[in-house]
Amino acid sequence: MVLSKNSGGHRGMQESMYSVIALVFILVACVELCDAAAAIDVYRLIQYDMSGSAYGSRFAVLNHHAASLHFPPGADLSRAVLIIPLRELNITFVREYINQKKPLGGLLFLLPDIFSFENGGNKQVHEKEKLKNLLAELEQLLIHANIPYPVYFAFENDEIDTVLVDIKKNDAIGQPATATTGGYKLVIPTPEPKKVASPTITNIQGWLSGLKVDGDTNQLPTIAIVASYDTFGAAPALSVGSDSNGSGVVALLEIARLFSLLYSNPKTRGRYNLLFGLTSGGPYNYNGTQKWLRSFDQRLRESIDYAICLNSIGSWDNELWIHVSKPPENAYIKQIFEGFSNVAEELHIKVGLKHKKINISNPRVTWEHEQFSRLRVTAATLSEISTAPELLQGTGGLFDSRQFVNETAITRGVKLVAESLARHIYGHQGKNVQIFADGGSLAVNPAYIQSWLDLLSQTPRVAPFLSKNDPFVMALKKELADHTDEVNMQHEVLEGVFTFYDSTSARLNIYQVASVTFDLLLLLVLGSYLIVLFSFLVITTRGLDDLISLFRRPPSRKVKTA
Questions:
Q1: Residues 107 and 82 sit within 8 Å (Cβ to Cβ)
Q2: Paired residues of 511 in beta bridges
Q3: pLDDT in tens, 326-368
């Protein structure tokens, strides 16, 4: 009985000891004592490969301390995330860090809420334009660089601003956040990016049949109105492309609506077929347009009188450009340009002509009409842009937001195109006849333009991240079907030299962490308290001898030899 009692007592003491040890381990595990300071949505810099070369941000997981641009000279930033508000951006500094491949834990760019300014004073307009140009320069730098760490974008808000003030304060006094000093830690526990397998592009086509004379077996001529709807930008989850090319899409839909009213009545139906095309793959040498055109049979292709491609017509003042591949002396080009010029003069709009010869052997396609020209189809692009953009430039980036697009400019562009087409279709060239006059039943509808522009300005449309049945794609199809006939969709795999990676957005958790010095001090205090508490419990329940026996060396178990 005594033996049983003693072994039971030892077992109880061991259980108490194990409980205390477990408690100590829990405290050690939690010793960092973090308080969640903020949690915000962030948007990752695009990651892609082009011709086997890597571009963009190559990582997504983030778990480093935060730092500001006020970090002390010589500071080790290899495990720090620099938080850089766009207002404070030094583009030379960022370019130097990226080009020289200096070690960095990550970058977080804070985009201002300046795009939602309610007042439009001259100072604010100037500031908007300044930030827009700065953001455009930053975007081009980032998308053409191979960056071996996570890069994210976020919008300024009160939470992140408060955190940034504290970080700047610590950096200014020479105490940047480290494991030793504490500070703020940025954590994004997201899976590493994976390749987007077989990204699809979807073209949408609508048709308005012209009026045929009884007994006429000849095919009617066709005019094509085309706009590319997808975008490309530094942050795919933010690439809405309000101007490029949301404005072109809106204009196409309104032109389709206007001509559907004319073509619904046999008395006003023209003797031209109208083909409307909403194409994808625009930023990638208009890959979708190429596939769409190659799906035409030869008879349809030969019936196209000419094609008008709409590109970025939402932020111009008084001048638009018609870009062509055929020489200006070409009879068809002269006819198109004269038709647009006559209407433009009546609308007090200036229209210029830009000729750029294409090189069939060069895969680079700068304007959508060039895909038509490569198949010997007369075509032109109407745009506010006077010079051909570089690859992946001006394709709906971060700076291309709703606040920089003027629906009045789109309305004027729609009038120009619709009147020019109508005069060509109905043989009114050179006549001062307004078919789509303001106030009439065929007037351009600004409310319709505004509603679709608002929708496009809230919808990221980077093609590799749009599925075949994406709600936005289906909405475009439905809208085109409301105004045209024989609407169909063409799904193709995006071909070429591009490979894309997923993980375009995430949730950033910002923790305020205590310093190691504080952690050690706290651990020492807690450990001392637990030792005293344990000793007190053992003495009061079992006596001093039992406490001493815990630390006494156990007797040797060696057997004595005879």
A1: yes
A2: 36, 185
A3: 999 999 999 999 999 999 999 999 999 999 999 989 999 999 9
User: Which has the closest alpha carbon to 226: 373, 429, 91?
Assistant: 373
Contact 331, 301 (CB under 8 A): no
SS3 260: helix
Distance CA 444, CA 172 (A): 57
Q: In whole angstroms, give the CA distance from residue 238 to residue 227.
A: 21
CA angle centred on 345, ends 340 and 350, rounded to 5°: 75
Interatomic CA distance for residues 491 and 292, integer angstroms:
10
Q: Among candidates 400, 407, 410, which has minimal Cα distance to 231?
A: 400
Distance in angstroms (rounded) separating the CA atoms of residues 347 and 419 = 10
Where would I find the beta strands (DSSP E) of 280-432?
Answer: 304-311, 319-324, 350-355, 379-383
Tokens of 187: 């954590």
- At 236-295, the pLDDT tens digits run 999 999 999 999 999 999 999 999 999 999 999 999 999 999 999 999 999 999 999 999
* Beta bridge mates, 43: 153, 505
Q: What does pTM read for this prediction? A: 0.85
Measured between alpha carbons, how far is 258 from 206 in angstroms, rounded to an integer? 14
* The two three-digit tokens of residue 345, written as one number: 């003069």
pLDDT at 432: 76
Rg (CA), the chain: 34
Q: Where are the alpha helices (DSSP H) in 281-381?
A: 287-294, 298-303, 331-346, 369-373
Close Cβ partners of 199 (under 8 Å, ≥ 6 residues apart): 463, 464, 465, 493, 494, 500
Count CB neighbours of 326 within 10 A: 20
Q: Which helix (H) or strand (E) holds 222?
A: strand 222-228
Strand partners for 207 = 275, 485
